[in-house]
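Appendix C. Worked example: Ig-like domain-containing protein
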Amino acid sequence: MRKLLIFVLLVFQFPSITAPRNVTLSASELLDLQLEKCPQVLGCRCIDDSKKHIQCFSIGESKLLEIERVYGSNIRSLGIHSWQNDKLNLDIFSPFSQLEVLSIEDGELDSLNATIVNTSLKNLSLRNSEVSSDSEVCHLIKTLPNLQNLTISGNYFEKFECEAKNTKLTVLDLSRNQITHMKLPNSVRKLYVSNNKLTSFENIPMELTDLDISFNSLSSWPSSKNWTFPNLKRLSAVKLDLQTGFELDAPQLEYLNIDGASLRFLNFHQIKTPKLKEFSARHLVNLGNVAGNLPSTIVSVALTDTKLRTLPADFLPIAPTSGASSRKQFEFSTSNLLCHKCLLKWSLPVFSQTKIRQNCNLTREEISAASCKVGVVANETGIQYGKYEKPTTISCFSYGSPSPKISWWRFRPAENLGSYDPISDETSYTNVSAEMRDSYVIQSGGSLFIHSPNRSHVERYVCVAENIHGKEYGIYQFRLDYLDWYSFDVFHSVFWGGLATSFIVCLISFLLNITWILTRKSALWWIQRAERLSRVRKMVEAMEKYRVRQMESLHDKYTKRVQIVRDNYHQQVEALRVSYAAQQEKFQNYKAAQVDAVHSHLDAMRDGYNNQLGRVREYGSKRAEQLWESYERQVNRMRTFSLQHRLKMMRQYKVKQRYVNKLLESFQASSPEVQLENVNDLGPIDGAIDTPTRLSRSSSFHSLPEYVIDEQGNVRPGIIPISSAGIRFATKPAASSIPSGAGTSSPSSSGPNPSPDSPRKD
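Step 2, the predicted output written as structure tokens:
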């Protein structure tokens, strides 16, 4: 009980004892004012608290002066994300005399340039900077003599041609561009050109040690006889778009990656890599046959998602010691493995890393103890299928010790197709017809390759395996696989492709029918419109011709009647003038004796003559006025008639006024109104009438000239007001019977001046 009380007392006193110590610690931490190891610049930070390794974000050229002032000029590595300028001149980094690593990423560079030789820079990265000019990059390489590593991935290069000399560039990263061809400096040893558009191995240096050519459109692979990579140690060719023909001669190669390749056949007899350690072939969904074996140096193998049913018995090297198998990494998966003891001999070195025990219910001891002298497994394989007109391989699942020689025969008709010797890795076509050689090829490993399967290749094929222990054969049935006709890939499925084609054909037919209907209706509408417009044109033309004829007839009648009035008027004026001249002649002899009587008589005669002339003029003017009114009424009736017929025709044929106006413009030149407006002279009437320039209803046109006899006895026109001075009538010359003393009067607008032909008064 006493101990319990002491414990409770200590518990209550413990916070008061420890509180001062805690206050002291927190105060020391707050008062610990230490200088920062790395000063801060807005947008930049130090890496590992070192002022020699700086990383900046979203800066431009103007920020470099502050970086130099704060961090000094001894910076060794500088990383810049999102360069803010669209131009980059490496001369701005010349103050950093010890700069070895420069990384400028995620920028938008339009141009690159450098004029100062920089001997300190060794690593340069321009990743994701939208660079597209290989000549500018090549110029940078020449100004950086000690540059060893250049990364320009994720840009817009369509080609890269740079054969710079006297450079130390060994690592070049051109991945994620759009390069179709390239020329590289001879000093490059590590090349990364994945995710481009290369189609061949052209201009790829053979002195490379590392090569990444993944995700390209390689349509061919170089033959090992012509291409040798003596120093190549790592090769990555992911998504290789090749079905056969993968060869490689690289005696120093240690790592090979062909993940996702389209290979159907893999021949390790043509892959000469004696020092290969890692082999990766994941997701080879088309791989159906493998020939040859891996080198003894292999430590890691990945062969997954294939169509392989077995592997060669010596595919994996046998470990020299019992614990060696545990050091190998083996990954293998296939869709349809043959669970035959003799066909599973290849799995003994890595049996513990496979799923054979679960899938085939076999132990390693059972497989190892199986006696496999010679044989062919055919009954368990079932029918082998191939797609129509697509290269197909028929495998011969044979076994034996030693490896048997494989021969292929066509069952019906019985014809030899060739043979394969696994010891020498050679194929023989002795006694094989040329027709069979065109259709069939014996591949390395003993499989039968059909170039373009069709109905003629659907047959049974006999595989004969022969070694020192005897001869065995197996019959394989080959059929065409039409399952892809019903696949969901529309472009490779006959069923869905047929449906899509039918739908497209129906759609096209529907569109063609609609187009035909619309075209037909449009054509008929245009034809009907053309016919309608043609009829309208003919009717308008006929109406216009009728109107023109009527107007011409009216014009001729009016002109003739006016001419008759004028002629009658002039005849009467001439008769009066002749009468007056005769009377004047009679009284000339009496001038001296009876001057007064003669003058009074002459005045009476003159007044009578003037009265007669006035009556004649009034009669002619009234007659001309009546003629003009009649002419005007007929013209108005003709215009009304034409307008009514035009409106009726427009309503009947649904023609716009604009079209009718265009038609009328074509007939305007022959219209009487146009003729009347364009005629400047109607011609003199016996030299006695001055005709008007236009027929218009005005006093100058309808009024006849007024003739008077002056005090000297001469007949002359009277003064006509200016507003009605449109027409002048000139007197005709006197007849030959008139004495020369009687002068003729001429029209004048200046008053009663004597005619130059009349005799002067003495």
